[in-house]
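Tokens for chain A. Residues wanted.
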């Protein structure tokens, strides 16, 4: 006997996000502004809680290295650039919205 599955909602089934073994995270900032400091602190807490040592954070100060902004297509700061196996994602702001950052890191699905 064969069984078939029907899609009730009309949406395609969602796949679990592909999570890399180690995350490469670049945080672009402009000096030691309160927002930049808060972004780094939020990122560090989030990584410690959810990535358990499987990450590398590189902070790039665009005041010292402005040439990096164009190559990485940075239009606002602070910006977190996440390199995933299938894509590169950017999150702009102080990273205080944990759900948004987790989705960006492919650790949580949209929902």
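Reply:
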């Amino acid at each position: 006997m064969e069984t078939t599955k029907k899609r009730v909602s009309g949406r395609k089934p969602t796949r679990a996000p592909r999570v890399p073994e180690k995350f490469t995270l670049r945080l672009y900032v402009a000096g030691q502004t309160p927002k930049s400091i808060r972004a780094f602190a939020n990122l560090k807490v989030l990584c410690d809680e959810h990535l358990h040592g499987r990450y590398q954070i590189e902070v790039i100060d665009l005041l010292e290295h402005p040439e990096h902004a164009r190559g990485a297509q940075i239009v606002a700061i602070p910006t977190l650039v996440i390199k995933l196996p299938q894509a590169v994602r950017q999150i702009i702001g102080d990273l205080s919205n944990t759900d948004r950052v987790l989705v960006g890191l492919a650790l949580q699905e949209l929902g």
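Residues 34-50 form the longest helix (17 residues). Confidence is low (pLDDT under 50) at residues 1-14.
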